[in-house]
Design a protein that fits this description.
Nuclear Transport Factor 2, Chain: A; globular; 3 helices; 4 strands; alpha+beta; single chain; 134 residues; 4-stranded antiparallel beta sheet
């Protein structure tokens, strides 16, 4: 049920930029410059059905095994709203992003609110650590 996004069209993350200039390069291996950009790229990965990117951008200490992680293809991720960011910038090693993701599943429209925690690894890459329902 995942929406098919055009790579030359708007990015699923809602930034207003084209996918090829926004989340596309991060999905291709470029490091995210901030925790918020990583959050946006992870939303886009859910929308596009990119489980390998989601696992690669997850902190290895909290990441599930590949066999325990599968995307629900009955969910269509539609919109992302960033409510707040704390830290997560160029000079930080940690950050938080509070967001609402809007989706549609078999039971209709739903919202997922979360305050996600991110950490920058020794390699300079931001990674998702965990999150709490907001």
């Amino acid at each position: 049920m995942n929406t098919v996004w055009r790579t030359d069209g708007p990015c699923p993350c809602g930034s207003g930029a084209a996918y090829c200039a926004c989340c596309g390069p991060l999905h291709g291996g470029e490091p995210a410059p901030s925790a918020e950009r990583l959050m946006r790229s992870r939303f886009s990965a859910f929308a596009l059905g990119l489980p390998e990117y989601l696992l690669r951008s997850w902190d290895p200490h909290t990441r599930p095994d590949r066999s325990d992680f599968d995307l629900d293809d009955t969910v269509e991720w539609r919109r992302l709203f960033i409510a707040d960011t704390t830290g997560g910038g160029p000079d930080d090693d940690a950050g938080f992003v509070t967001f609402t993701a809007i989706g549609r599943g078999q039971d209709g429209r739903f919202e997922q609110r979360e305050r996600s925690r991110f950490a920058r690894g020794a390699d300079g890459h931001w990674r998702y650590v965990d999150g709490d329902a907001a």
